[in-house]
Amino acid sequence: MATGPSLEKRMIKIYIHTDLEGVSGIDSFEMMQRTSETYRRCCELLMGDLNAAIDGAFAGGADHVTVLDSHGGGNNFIPEMLDPRAENDTRPNKKWWGILDESYQGTFFIGAHAMSGTMNAFLDHTQSSIHWHDYSINGRRMGELAQWAIVASNWNVPMLMVSGDEAACVEARQFFHPVETAVVKRAIGRNRAELVDLEEARARIREAARRAVSLIGQARPFCPLKPMEILLEYNRADYCDAAATRPGVERIDARTIRKVTSDPLAILP
Ligand SMILES: [Zn+2]
């Protein structure tokens, strides 16, 4: 039999996207405001969840793990707390997806929250809780989990694992299968949450991450049919005014814009 490069074991690379709302130990809106004295504690909690996911990924067989600090544009990581085995994506291209490319076999989403308009979801929103009311592609409402997965589909990278509040994990299961999830809290109204014990939460994350690596080969990238018809409804007409002037964008009513694209990297109008 012929042997060649195709039979060589491919290096397993995982890309971990992070947000803050769905991190273990964070149970109120006020706690995570950047101006609050508890914000530093939230960043430490983020590093705890992230390191649990990194450890799980390596335990599951990953050879390389890259991590992205994404909440509010970044600056939440405490670099000296990061597991030294992981590569920190500093986003040299200034894009949401940083150095993600086709060399990765899967992506995880740590600290997730549910899409705007979800009941019993901790700090539900999509991209901007101030500006965005509703977002859909091809008639299906979606939030940041699906948006990130579509971006990753540009390089055929599937979503393998999600951690966050219960509503975020339910949403993950509605969009991706197979997928591993780790529930770390449950919302009480929008702005409070009932927490899973911190050690238990991190153990769930580590275990979900470990199992998720074995989904490589089964999980498929999340790709809506193309071209994608995107509708974005803002909270107010004045937020829509500026967006409506962008190329390829059509305004369909006071608060709503429409865009049709086949480019997974152009889904945020
Ligand atoms: Zn966030």
What molecules are bound to this protein? zinc ion
Strand order of the largest sheet: 3-2-1-4-7-8-9
The number of helical elements comes to 5
CATH architecture: 3-Layer(aba) Sandwich
Percent of residues in helices: 10-25%
Instruction: Tell me the overall shape.
Output: globular
Strand content: 15-25%
Provide the gyration radius in Å: 18 Å
- Class by alpha and beta content: alpha/beta
CATH superfamily (homologous) name:
Dipeptide transport protein
How many domains? The number is 1
Task: Characterize the structure shown.
The protein is an alpha/beta fold. It has a single domain (10-128, 143-222), classed as Rossmann fold (3-Layer(aba) Sandwich). The protein contains five helices and twelve strands. It has a seven-stranded mixed beta sheet, sandwiched between helices. Helix 3 (166-175) links the parallel strand 7 (159-165) and strand 8. Helix 1 (39-59) packs parallel to helix 4 (198-213). The site of zinc ion has 4 residues, from loops. Zinc ion binds next to loops.
Map the helices and strands.
Blueprint: E1 13-18, H1 39-59, E2 64-69, E3 87-88, E4 106-112, E5 132-137, E6 140-141, H2 144-153, E7 159-165, H3 166-175, E8 180-188, E9 192-195, H4 198-213, E10 228-234, H5 237-243, E11 249-251, E12 256-261
Parallel strand pairs: 1-2, 1-4, 2-3, 4-7, 7-8
Antiparallel strand pairs: 5-6, 5-10, 8-9, 10-12, 11-12
Helix pairs in contact: 1-4
The structure holds zinc ion.
The site of zinc ion has 4 residues, from loops.
